[in-house]
Write a structure and sequence with these properties.
about 600 residues, alpha/beta, 8-stranded parallel barrel, 24 helices, globular
Length: about 600
């Protein structure tokens, strides 16, 4: 029974694969054309537009801290951002329309640019303003299928920052809610997966298309669909694994040749890896979409092949552009031009749970691993002093339902904190500074803020510590932009970084640098910031493969809870310079680098 089930799946996949073989150049033209258009024009355009809107309103960022102020006092700017979001949703819809319409026209051997864009215009005419919200919900639901079925660069940018997922998974109730949310999103996503094809092929409105998709995927059809997509994804992974392994083994042998010769082969082999990866990605996307639209009577494959010379020429030109751009990047990557050793920064002054965060005993242990900086957090106390502490409440580490603003510095420094089997007293900032000076450890100081802070907090902080921080070459940072702006005005000599938990604009602020959550950080932001001579630090990076990726992305610093792991990864990065290892790193660590 299982053998027959798998046999049917492979027969269906093979039928669609035959169609791909007939029209592979046309499919490549369609996908690479859309990818290049999106990467080169659409994504930069929307980033510049968002940055320009914020800049025109003298607002350097958007976050939970200022969203109410933006809505109430910068209404026009807020409306512009909403309009931009609507346009972005329509652009994503247009991308999907081009892909689905292009696949139908190519697979039926009747592709024509004139017909394609005429049908694209018709598909837009079926969208109503009231459908925009439904489209937004739908796009979020199909995100789990984005890489396998609906492969577009814009949708790939939609992701929840890693620090939010990390925070939610630390609480059993939040983790349970997250699992339930993903499960419901997955179920709804697969039941509504035919919505876009129905809208585009049958010109139906969004709600009616959702309803029909729900009906078509009932009676266990959803499992039939999912099983085929899973088998297809597994098969593609095996193909890539075998091919990449052969390339790696080949380069191992070629590395024995003279360095200049092995370099030429390495550039060629890496280009092969990229071209084959792109081809397999297009192959799997085409077959997945053909599997998805199979129930629709309006979509039938044709056996007759129509020659489309113009499209084939376009495909070859696009492949040439792709190969030239990839080849140039490969030379830079393999030669490690402009690649630098990042600063190593211990998150909250600990490494691998070696003590209680933000305490002096942990500082002394962590300093033995020789970080460039130890990152700590400051809160203002009831008597307007400063205490080294991250949380806004003592309940988690001390079991006391109080905030730093409820207690004086003397009261706080008597409290014992407990974490990961360790115990330590809360340290005043003065005590921590003294301990850091004694062991000659540089500090990265985060200024935490609450609504209860005193109006003169920043002035007091600068008056007491500003000169010392400058003298010892310490750095300051904050998630609150008012701190960045305030310290810049009070003491421009302080080196102050702005912490950003997500990235959707180009860097623009008075900050001296940026402290960015790694999962939404990309080459574009880093490059733009460094053009302004402003460093970018990535937080909080704990996995070796992500540490390596951040180094290849050329970040200036890496914040981590695993300092020993980071030191080892940097050592491996500097020691293992063979071209075979660089190919392996590209395959394992940078699989989406060319598309980011």
């Amino acid at each position: 029974m299982e053998d027959r089930f798998l046999k049917n799946i492979f027969q269906e996949i093979n039928r669609y694969a035959n169609n791909f073989r007939k029209y592979w150049l046309q499919y490549i033209a369609l996908f690479i054309g859309i990818d290049l258009f999106t990467q080169v024009l659409i994504i930069p355009l929307f980033r510049y537009l968002t940055t320009a809107i914020l800049k025109a309103s003298a607002i350097p960022f958007i976050s939970y801290q200022n969203i109410i102020t933006i809505i109430s006092t910068h209404t026009l700017m807020f409306l512009c951002l909403i309009l931009e979001l609507i346009v972005l949703l329509l652009v994503i819809y247009g991308e999907f329309s081009l892909i689905l319409l292009g696949i139908r026209e190519i697979s039926q051997g009747r592709f024509s640019f004139r017909v394609l864009f005429r049908e694209l215009w018709q598909s837009y005419r079926s969208v109503r303003i009231g459908s925009v919200l439904l489209l937004a919900v739908y796009f979020l639901l199909i995100v789990p299928f984005a890489d396998l079925v609906y492969r577009t660069p814009l949708l790939a940018k939609v992701q929840i920052p890693e620090f939010i997922l990390d925070f939610m998974t630390r609480n059993i109730w939040l983790a349970s809610g997250l699992i339930i949310f993903y499960l419901l999103a997955f179920i709804l996503g697969i039941r509504l997966i035919l919505t876009l094809p129905i809208m585009i092929y049958q010109r139906k409105k969004t709600f009616l298309a959702m309803k029909e998709s729900w009906n078509l995927t009932s009676r266990k059809y959803w499992w039939k669909l999912l099983s085929r997509l899973l088998v297809l994804g597994f098969s593609a992974s095996i193909i890539l694994l075998i091919f990449n392994l052969l390339i790696y083994l080949c380069q191992l042998g070629l590395d024995r040749l003279p360095r200049n010769v092995s370099f030429i082969f390495a550039v060629f082999n890496l280009l092969l890896v990229q071209l084959v990866s792109e081809l397999v990605a297009i192959w799997i996307s085409i077959i997945s979409l053909l599997i998805v639209v199979a129930p629709l009577k309006s979509f039938k494959l044709q056996s007759k092949v129509k020659k489309t010379i113009k499209l084939k020429v376009l495909a070859l030109c696009l492949m040439l552009v792709f190969a030239l751009a990839a080849g140039a990047n490969n030379v830079l990557y393999l030669k490690e031009i402009d690649m630098q050793r990042p600063l190593t920064i211990s998150h909250r002054g600990v490494s691998d749970k070696n003590g209680v965060q933000n305490t002096i005993p942990a500082l002394k242990k962590t300093a033995k691993l020789h970080p460039d900086y130890v990152e700590i957090d400051l809160h203002e106390t009831k008597d307007k002093q400063f205490v080294v502490m991250h949380d806004e409440n003592l309940k988690q580490l001390a079991g006391i339902n109080k905030t730093p603003k409820d207690l004086t510095l003397k009261q706080l420094t008597r409290i014992t904190l407990r974490e990961d089997g360790h115990r330590a007293k809360i340290a005043s900032f003065d005590q921590y500074l003294k301990a850091a000076a004694k062991i000659k450890q540089k500090l990265l100081i985060e200024v935490k803020t609450t609504p209860n802070d005193s109006t003169k907090m920043l002035q007091n902080f600068n008056k007491k510590y500003g000169k010392l921080i400058i003298k010892r070459k310490y750095q300051v940072q904050s998630l609150d932009y008012r701190v960045i702006e305030g310290l810049h005005q009070i003491n421009p000599k302080l080196f102050v970084l702005y912490i950003q938990p997500y990235n959707f604009t180009y860097p623009q602020s008075v900050a001296n640098g940026y402290y960015m959550e790694y999962s939404t950080l990309n080459n574009d932001f880093i490059w733009q910031a460094q053009l302004q001579n402003k460093p970018v630090y990535a937080w909080t990076v704990n996995a070796p493969n992500m540490m390596m990726k951040m180094m290849y992305d050329n970040v200036n610093g890496i914040i981590t809870d695993q300092l020993a792991e980071l030191n080892e990864t940097i050592k491996d990065f500097e020691d293992n310079q063979s071209y075979a290892n660089k190919l392996l790193n590209f395959i394992l660590i940078l699989p989406n680098e060319s598309a980011s």
